[in-house]
Amino acid sequence: MFKVEIKKPIWNGELRKRCVGIAEFRLQPVMQVDIMYTRKDGTRTFPNPFKVTKAQMLKCPTMVVGGNVKLYVIPVEDMEEIER
C-alpha cells in the first residue's frame, strides 16, 4: 500500500467538511493517508492513518493549486480509518 503524509487537512474546503488534498500524480490503486497535523498540546488531530482507493478518489471534486497541480479533495469521513 502506497503511503502519503499530509501536513494539514483542508479545514474549510468547498464541501464544508474536513478534507485532504492528494495530487493527481500521486494516485495509486490503494493508499494509506497519514494526517500529521497536531494541536497546540502536541497531540495529533487524526492519530490513526486512513485507507482510500483510487476509485473513491476519482469520484471526489478537484481543485487546481499553484504550479497547475490538480488535487483530489477527499473528505476525511469518506476514508476508512486504520486502527493502529
Overview of the structural elements:
With 84 residues, this protein is mostly beta strands. It has one domain (2-78). Helices cover 6% and strands 39% of the residues. It is built from one helix and seven strands. The strands form two sheets. The chain has a four-stranded mixed beta sheet with strand order 1-3-4-7. The chain has a three-stranded antiparallel beta sheet with strand order 2-6-5. The longest helix is centred in the middle third of the chain and has 5 residues, at 54-58.
- In spatial order, strands of the major sheet run 1-3-4-7
What integer is the average pLDDT? 92
Measured between the Cα atoms of the first and last residue, the distance is 15 Å
Structure annotation, total helices: 1
Q: State the total count of DSSP E strands.
A: 7
Query: Given the helix and strand composition, which structural class is it?
Result: mainly beta
Question: What is the helix/strand order?
Answer: EEEEHEEE
Largest sheet: 4 strands, mixed
Radius of gyration: 12 Å
Strand content: 35-45%
- For the record, the count of structural domains works out to 1
The residue fraction in helices comes out at: under 10%
Which descriptor suits the 3D outline?
globular
Low-pLDDT segments: none
